[in-house]
Every structure is written in C-alpha cells, then in structure tokens.
Amino acid sequence: MTAEPLLTVRDLHVTYPTAGSPVPAVRGVDLEVGVGETLGLAGESGCGKSSLAGALLRLLPRGTRVTGEVLLDGEDVLTMKPGRLRAVRWTELAIVFQGALHTLNPVQRVGAQIAEAIRLHSRDVRGAGVGKRVGELLELVGLPARRAHDYPHQLSGGQRQRVLIGLALACDPRLLIADEPTTALDVMVQAQVLRLLEELQEQFGLAVIFITHDLSTLAAVCERLAVMYAGRVVEQGPSRDIFEAPAHPYTRGLAAAFPVIGDTAFRMKPSGLPGDPPDPRRLPSGCPFHPRCPDAVAVCPSTPVELWPAGDRRSAACVHVSGSPVPA
Amino acid sequence: MVGLAILVAAVAMALAAPLLADDAGLRAINTTENPAWASPSEFGPLGTDSLGRDVMTQFIWGARISLLVGLAATLLAILIGSIVGIAAGFFGGRFGGLLMRLTEWFLVIPFLPLAVVLAAILGPSVENIILVIGITSWPFPARLIRAQVLTLKERDYVDRSRALGASNWHLMTRHILPNVAPLILATTTLTVPIAILSEATLSFLGLGDPTNISWGRMLDDAFETGAITLEAWWYFVPPGLGVMLVALAFTLCGTALEEILDPRLRDTHG
Amino acid sequence: MNAGPLMEVRGVRVEYAGRGQVARAVDGVDLELRSGEILALVGESGCGKTTLARTIVGLQRPAAGEVRLRGKPLGYDRRSLREHRRAAQLIFQDPTGALNARHTIYEAVAEGVRIQELPGVEEELVAEALSRAGLRPPESFFTRYPYEISGGQRQRVVIAGAMVLNPQLLVADEPVSSLDASVRGEILALMLRLVRETEVGMLVVTHDLGLAWNVADRVAVMYLGRIVEQGTTEELLTAPRHPYTRALLSVVPEVAEVEQQILSGEAPDPTRIPPGCRFHPRCPLYASGEAARLGIAERCLGEDPLKLPACHAVA
C-alpha cells in the first residue's frame, strides 16, 4: 500500500478510572486502515475492542484517560478542539453499534432519529432536504422510505441494523466503525447485512473497521485483521491466512470455535480454551495469555511480549514466533 | 447503621417511657400548677404546652403510640398487600384479575370517609386505628408487588425450577418471594411514615383513642392551640422531628437490609 | 441400549393466541431421538425450535400430537409431569438468567435433588454433579454465588443441576451462544463427554450450523414450525437437498467455495403461514423459475409437502 493510510492509530491507551485502581482497557495498540479498506478487529469480552472503537470517536465517558494518536488524514482526533471534533464526527468517521432494541431511542420514530443526526452534523442539508435525505438513506440500506414513520420495536432485528447503518452513513463518512453489527442476528439476516455493507463500500469507497468475536466472518469479509487480547493486538495480517493458519495460540483457540463445515477434522472434536478471558484489573504477568495457553513455556510469565514478524505482512505476539530460541 | 441506631433509640425510649417520665404528667388536671407555654429554658427540657403539661413527657410517651400504630398498621398493610400482590401476579388469569379488581376497589375509595365509617362501626381505640389504616393502605403495595412479580415469573430461573419439577408453592417461596423482598422492604419504609401521619389525622378527627398521646396528636394539639402563632417551637418541632427521624431510620435500615439480602450488592462496599 | 427410540414427537402442534390470530409456532412435527445420540435442531429465530424444545420437556402443552418417552406418552397431570421432569431436563441459553442470583451454587444444584426427593446424601450428589461438570474441587463452589464465577462456569452449574437428576434426555437450547467464543468448545466437549459416558440422549437447539457439524450425529432443519429436512450430519451438511438448507449453508462464512444464496426478507411470522409449501415465497427455486421448469410450480403454491425433505423438487 503506497498511499497514505486514512486512519493511523499509534500507541493507543485507554484507562478507566474507578474507585479502586484504574482499569487499563487498551494497552498500546497500533493500527492502520487505508482508504476503502476493510480491517477486522477480533476479540472477546474484556479484550478492549469496544473501548478502542469508542476512543476513535472520543465517545468514551468523561474522565477516561486516552493517550496516543489517532490520525485521520494526518490530523489527530484526540487533540482536536470540540468544534472540529463535532465537524469530523459523523462526517468523516461514523460508528454502527449492535442493533439491539436499546441502541435506538424506543420512543422516537426511526426517521426522526436519522433526521436528528443529519441536522446535528451536516451544514448543507436543511428543511425539506432533511426528509428527502432520510428517505434516500433508508432506500440505500434496502428499506422502503415509508419505514421512517415506524418505531424501533416495529422493526425486526435485521431492519434495525439497517437503520443504524443508514444513520451512520447520513453524512457520507469515509470510515465506518462497525461494532458487533451482526452478532445477534440470524445467519441469513447476517448475510444480508454483510452484503449490504459490501455494496455500500463499493459504491462509496468506504473504509470499514469491523469489530466482532466471529473470526470466520472476518476472514470472509475483511482483507486484513487484528486479533486483540487483554488490551493489546496479539496477531495481525491478511485475514484468510490468519484464519487458516493462526500463528498465535490464542487465535488458534479462537478459530477452533468456528468449525469448518465439511472438514472432518472438526467432527466430534469440540475444542476451546480453558479458563476465561482475563479481568483487565488483574492481568497475568508477562504474556497475558500464558495461563490459558496450550503452548506456554517457562519464559512466558516473565517475557514482555511484542508483535514479532510471523510471515508475509504478518506479526504475532508470541515467544514461539519471536525468532529467538525458546527453551522447552 | 445510623438508621438502626436511631430506631433502637426511639424504640428504647418508647419502651422505657414509664421509667423516664411519670405519666401523671400527661393528665392536664395534674399540671395546673405548671406554667402554660413555658419555653425549655423556663421549665423542663422541652417546656410546656397550653395546659401546662410537660412536652418532654408527652414526647416520650407519644413515641409509644406513634411507633406502635405506625409499625403495626404498616405490617398489616404489607402482609395483605404482599399476599394479594404475589398471588395476583403469579397466577394471573381470572383469579389474578379478580384480586386486582378487589385491589382497585379499595384504592378508589377515599381514605377518610372509609376510615370514619370503619371507626364509627368499630369504635375508637388504638387497635381499631391500626386496623383501619392497615385496611386502607394495602392496595398500594399490592399493585407494586404484583407488577414486579409479573416480570419475575418470566425469568429463566423460574422456568428452570419448574423444569426440575417444582410446585407452585416452591416457586413462590423460594424464587419469587426472595426476589420481591427488596421491593416489599422499600414499600414498608415508605408506608411507615404515612401510617404515623394517618394516625394523627384520625386522632385529630376524634376517631383515635383520646386517652392516649401520640406524636401526631401532639402536632395537631399544637396546631389547635395556636402554638405556631405563639412561636412555641418546643411543642411542634420535637414531634415533627420525631416522625422525620423515624422515617429516615426506616429507610436507612431498609437499604442496609436490602444489601444483606442481595448478594450482588455486597461487593460494591467491599 | 433399548430397541425403540428414547424420545418421540408425533404430530405435535403448539399454538399461541395473539391479538385475535392464532400463531402456529409448531405446526406438525415428527421427531425421534435415540439414547446416546445427539440431534441438532437447526433453524432461525421464529421457526419454533425453542417452543418445540420446551414442549419436549413438558414446559409447554401441545395443542395436538404427543411427546413420548420410552414409548410412554407424556401426561399433563402433576404426577406424570414430575416423573417426566426427572427424565427430561433443559439447559438454558443464558446461564446468568437461569440461575437465581440469591442462591448459592450449592443451592442451585441441590434444588433438583430436593424437589425430586432423590435418594442419597444431598451433599455427595451435589459434589459429584459439580465435579462431573468440570467444576473441581466441587466444595470450593458450594458457597459461591453466580455473580462470582464466569459465564462458562455458570453454564457448567446449570448442566450440573440438570445432570444431578440422572436424566435420560437432555434438551439444550442454544447452550453456548451467550458464552465467549473461545470458551464454547470446552462446554461442548463436556456435553459430548456426558453423552458418551451416560448414554443420555441430547437434543441441541441452535441456529449455528457449525455447532451441528461439530457435535451432532443427526440434524433436523426447521422452518416456520415444520421440519423441512432431516438426516445424518454428514449427509445433510455436505449434500443438502432442501433449498432452504442449501441457502442456509451457502451463507455460512466458513463455507467459502459455494456461491451465496442470500434469501430476501425474513421468515413471515407464524400467524401468516404461506399456503402450499410454506417456503415458496422465499424459495430460490421458485423465484428463479426453476420450479416452473420442473413442472412443480402449482404444487409449490397449493400443496403442502409432507414427506421429507419437504420439497416438491425432490421427490
């Protein structure tokens, strides 16, 4: 990729203050997304992916410590003045959440909610133009324009997800952050929404950061992906390569949760990782994955791991990949 | 803890009344020598009222009736309300509907006329006041409790218990009741001060027991005899404070109890 | 192992009344399960699979048809239901909701023991059940509360609570979908092991075809209250015959080589079941004209396919 990336994240840290000691949700993440590119972010509860998404748009609660750089076309989102931030939010960077009933205001018609976003963020569209734009957006996401009069509970899960996508596209952003957009949906509806996202990407040259725990979906939908664990990226590279041959033991464990139908290697052999994702307040020493790692060796609890190269445009934060000799 | 301390102090005071103050001081005929409307600096710790009766004595003895009626009437109301609420919510259907119609009937009837009628039939006495207040107060908690039971019975753990073969009684007592208990407790703490003031209202109308003194009665006596105009604060401030502190105490205790009963809340203070 | 099937469902219909219309959540289902077998009941939301699961364990009463356990039809009086509950248990989707937050783990597992008045020392039974569910040492879990343990452990507690009764049939409704992905394998492995060790028959209700491939011996696909295709896992998932099954498989992300058949819209709700073949409004065969070419288009519109696979094109 020779062109300047659209979004560059450098050494991002997100720490939540609490009554006790502060909780580090994101502990130093570097990412890059090019124009029109799709980056997948894989991880489970507690890995920090949602905190990361919130940090990119500065949507985290007040008091949260966010350090590092989030460069959108060279401009740092984290140091923008409120006026500039407002101008950038939604018009350059937009976010789509899981379409659960509580993501949309249950007592406001969906058309009104989209209209609100347009009025808040767009200077040019006013008056009757807003209603027209709402109609356009709904049709863009595959819903009839008259659905603008419906309340969220009158729509199905898939339809609500489409509304949220329409809402996010209201001001023609260049980068869409999709946080678990299809997790609660049936597989057929999920396919519909994914295809919609694909079409919109083609049509508008949208870049997408796709966040989910579903590694198999990322492998099918994204060009590159990064796997997060305990606030850090533990593996990254081309998505298909990672899914088929994970370099990091965590990725391997995660991939095993998505059996490939037709592959007899997965028949009657359910395999998962022991234990649970770690509590960010009580992270294990050294490599945070070592208590659950099937390949852990003696040095793991004491080695500060970093992303070492693991193949063509790939890297993984595991001592077995570091290249240095590892005592058994 | 503060709440508990206040309550314990109030109850102790009420129970120890005979030791703390001679009840003879309550009878006006015994106090004709006392100066009327004496301020605390002139006579006793809390001065005297229009008839020369020692306010402190009244305060101590008044605690008894106020607390007794407040607690007993509330307990009666909560007992009836809980049973009706849980039954109506859990069983639903026609039976539940019937119970709710009954509840609504009682809700709609205005408190005072009903109380007057009941008191007229039953005659004025402390027991009857408790009965009257209890009977008129149960619909409010019943509706709240039923509403919560309706959501609780849809929870998965109720289903799981049913799948294990549990009887309705088991479901109501082991699963519904413990989870509706915080609401019951909260409603109780809300109802106690209302009961105490209801007692005062009834006493004011002559439906209460005229031979017994209570804080509510003190407030009304103070009002009646013009203590406010005379700025005899020592007459109406103590009983008012008394009611307020007892109500506060109940609320604090209620919160503390809720914490003890709900394992999830324990951690936050840990 | 007995000669006959462990559990049979014959012509079961379950209906809900809603706003003046009747919703046929389960509209005539036949199913069989043998001891030691894992059957995956697959379908999307609204297809009636959860309703069917609850009917099988007796939490729901069918409007027609019957559920049989070891040949004996399920009665709905108190005594029959209690006996049935001893033999058929349900694992819930969300273990957090399935456990009363005010009861300790011990009480959660002991509840079944007490209700069913099982013989034996209660503490031993609870300890053994927890241990078999992978919670070791069991005593360390006795006084803990659900909020103190992880999601995976909670599901193990629910499983222990069901297994303590030594049931013959286990119905698991989306047993791992609310758990973290990396934890799912362990719970599934536990379930597989329990089936192999105790010969219990297991019905797993899920929307996840990958899960079916992972642990099921047989698969039944449900659409709008009916089973549209049944068969062994290998057959059904590698060579599906019903167009709905084929479409479902084509959109599973793991299966990359097949061209995606994304069905339009969503399944209609059970109060408005289409006439004829209930799948025809969304069927790719019908929409593309293939059905007309095969000469079956009228049948798709007017005739309800009863033989499995429920498709007029496969006959």
Describe, in short, the structure shown.
The complex is a heterotrimer of chains A (328), B (270) and C (315). By secondary structure, chain B is mainly α.
SSE blueprint:
The complex is a heterotrimer of chains A (328), B (270) and C (315).
Chain A: E1 7-16, E2 23-33, E3 38-42, H1 49-56, E4 65-72, E5 75-76, H2 82-88, E6 93-96, H3 110-121, H4 128-140, H5 157-169, E7 175-179, H6 187-204, E8 207-212, H7 215-221, E9 224-229, E10 232-238, H8 239-244, H9 249-255, E11 308-309, E12 315-316
Parallel strand pairs in A: 3-8, 3-9, 6-7, 7-8
Antiparallel strand pairs in A: 1-2, 1-4, 4-5, 9-10, 10-12, 11-12
Chain B: H1 2-15, H2 17-20, H3 55-91, H4 93-108, H5 111-122, H6 126-137, H7 139-152, H8 156-163, H9 168-204, H10 215-224, H11 233-261, H12 263-266
Helix pairs in contact in B: 1-3, 1-11, 3-4, 3-6, 3-7, 3-9, 3-10, 3-11, 4-7, 5-6, 6-9, 7-9, 8-9, 9-10, 9-11, 10-11
Chain C: E1 7-18, E2 21-33, E3 38-42, H1 49-56, E4 64-69, E5 72-73, H2 78-87, E6 88-91, H3 95-98, H4 105-115, H5 122-132, H6 151-163, E7 169-173, H7 181-198, E8 201-206, H8 209-215, E9 218-223, E10 226-232, H9 233-238, H10 243-251, H11 284-287, H12 290-294, H13 297-302
Parallel strand pairs in C: 3-8, 3-9, 6-7, 7-8
Antiparallel strand pairs in C: 1-2, 1-4, 4-5, 9-10
Helix pairs in contact in C: 4-5, 4-6, 5-6, 6-7
What does this structure look like?
The complex is a heterotrimer of chains A (328), B (270) and C (315). By secondary structure, chain A is an alpha/beta fold. Chain A has 2 domains: 7-92 and 173-316, 3-Layer(aba) Sandwich (Rossmann fold), CATH 3.40.50; 103-172, no CATH class. Chain A has 9 helices and 12 strands. Chain A has helices spanning 49-56, 82-88, 110-121, 128-140, 157-169, 187-204, 215-221, 239-244, 249-255; strands spanning 7-16, 23-33, 38-42, 65-72, 75-76, 93-96, 175-179, 207-212, 224-229, 232-238, 308-309, 315-316. In chain A, the strands form 2 sheets. An 8-stranded mixed β-sheet of chain A has the order 6-7-8-3-9-10-12-11, with helices on both faces. In chain A, a hairpin with a 6-residue loop joins β1 and β2 (23-33). By secondary structure, chain B is mostly helical. Chain B has a single domain (2-269), classed as Orthogonal Bundle (MetI-like fold), CATH 1.10.3720. Chain B has 12 helices and no strands. Residues 266-270 of chain B have low confidence and may be disordered. Chain C has 315 residues and is an alpha/beta fold. Chain C folds into 2 domains: 7-236, 3-Layer(aba) Sandwich (Rossmann fold); 240-302, no CATH class. Helix content of chain C is 36%, strand content 21%.
